[in-house]
């Protein structure tokens, strides 16, 4: 990235060169070309660069003072800078013998001083305008950075809410298996839980993952539940090959699957079927988790009187990641169906 100091000197050089060229053009039009015009332009450009560089350092030193003090100090500094500019220019002109400044009338010096003072005022106005603009940009960038940090913290918080929620349910199931003397099943479930948590902890809560990876994690979770429910849990996968590389938030489907298992499969003596589908069109990815259970009361696309963490967590994560460019809706025609539509982004 180009440093502020480098940009300052580049704009300084360009600005004073333009000033010299404009002055030269006016001089040629009114008086014509003179032998010392080139020297005069070089001297004015060099003096302008040096004096306004010192002026900028002075402005930086007083930038934290009250505004009225900055204004008074700025006017005095511009006057001193103009005096230094005229004195140095005339002294060099005397040395090069193109003019004798000691013989010039007082009115000429007054006019030159006024001209130089106005030039320094114009430069100061441009400098402060650029300085204030840069300050506003810096504040805007800091605000965006802080917003991004807060956004990432929110996403991490939402993702990590899943682990204790899911862990509690699974450990409760393992405890039940042990009480029922199904030790082999409890051991198998503990091993699968270990694999699932290892995958969960290795993934970054902020970054999106390929749907292929998300489905692998979901299969690990369903393997855990399969130990609990055995033949009572049937899973149907309807995933298009074309969407396996689509990017999705990590563990976004697991809470929806857990909700269906808890409120549909677990409550039925015969169990039930869980259907997980994924399709794409030109610009969106559609994910659906549906069960054939008794359904639930749905209001405005969400479970009515829902006090659970999982489903609300999914919706909040989608809102944080995609703003208003997502769709999350639940319906209960035959069983409970949850649909997610997000922008289609493919893993590169």
Can you offer a commentary on this structure?
- With 348 residues, the protein is of the alpha+beta class.
- The chain is built from eight helices and nine strands.
- The protein has a five-stranded mixed sheet with strand order 2-4-5-9-8. Strands 1-3 form a two-stranded antiparallel sheet. The chain has a two-stranded antiparallel ribbon with strand order 6-7.
- α4 (106-179) runs antiparallel to α5 (183-202), α4 (106-179) packs antiparallel against α8 (310-322) and α7 runs antiparallel to α8 (310-322).
- The model has no long low-confidence stretch (mean pLDDT 79).
Summarize it.
It is built from eight helices and nine strands.
Strand composition percent: 5-15%
The whole-number mean of residue pLDDT values reads 79
Relative helix content: 55-70%
SSE series: HHHHHEHEEHEEEEHEE
Total E-strand runs:
9
Distance between the termini: 26 Å
Main sheet attributes: strand count, strand direction, barrel closure: 5 strands, mixed
């Amino acid at each position: 990235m180009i440093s502020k100091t480098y940009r300052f000197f580049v704009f300084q050089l360009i600005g004073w060169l333009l000033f010299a060229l404009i002055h030269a053009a006016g001089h040629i039009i009114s008086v014509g070309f003179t032998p010392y015009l080139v020297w005069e332009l070089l001297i004015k450009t060099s003096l302008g660069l040096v004096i306004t560089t010192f002026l900028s350092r002075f402005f930086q030193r007083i930038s934290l003072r009250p505004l009225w003090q900055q204004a008074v100090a700025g006017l005095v500094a511009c006057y001193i800078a103009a005096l230094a500019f005229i004195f140095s220019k005339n002294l060099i002109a005397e040395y090069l013998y193109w003019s004798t400044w000691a013989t010039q009338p007082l009115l000429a010096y007054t006019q030159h001083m006024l001209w130089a003072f106005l030039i320094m005022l114009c430069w100061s106005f441009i400098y402060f305008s650029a300085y204030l603009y840069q300050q506003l940009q810096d504040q805007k960038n800091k605000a965006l950075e802080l917003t991004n940090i807060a956004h990432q913290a929110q996403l991490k918080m939402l993702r990590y809410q899943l682990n204790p929620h899911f862990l509690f349910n699974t450990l409760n199931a393992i405890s039940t298996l042990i009480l029922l003397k199904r030790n082999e099943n409890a051991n198998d479930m503990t091993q699968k839980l270990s694999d699932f948590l290892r995958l969960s902890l290795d993934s970054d809560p902020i970054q999106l993952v390929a749907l292929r990876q998300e489905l692998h994690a979901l299969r690990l979770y369903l393997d855990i539940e399969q130990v609990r429910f055995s033949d009572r849990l049937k899973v149907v996968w309807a995933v298009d090959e074309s969407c396996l590389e689509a990017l999705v938030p990590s563990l976004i489907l697991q809470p929806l699957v857990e909700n269906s298992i808890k409120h549909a499969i677990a409550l039925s003596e015969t169990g039930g079927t869980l259907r997980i589908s994924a399709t794409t069109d030109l610009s969106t990815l559609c994910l659906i988790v549906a069960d054939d259970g008794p359904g639930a009361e749905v209001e405005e696309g969400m479970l009515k009187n829902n006090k659970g963490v999982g489903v609300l967590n999914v919706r909040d994560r989608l809102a944080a990641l995609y703003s208003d460019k997502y769709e999350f809706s639940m319906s209960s025609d035959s069983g409970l169906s949850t649909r997610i539509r997000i922008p289609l982004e493919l893993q590169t």
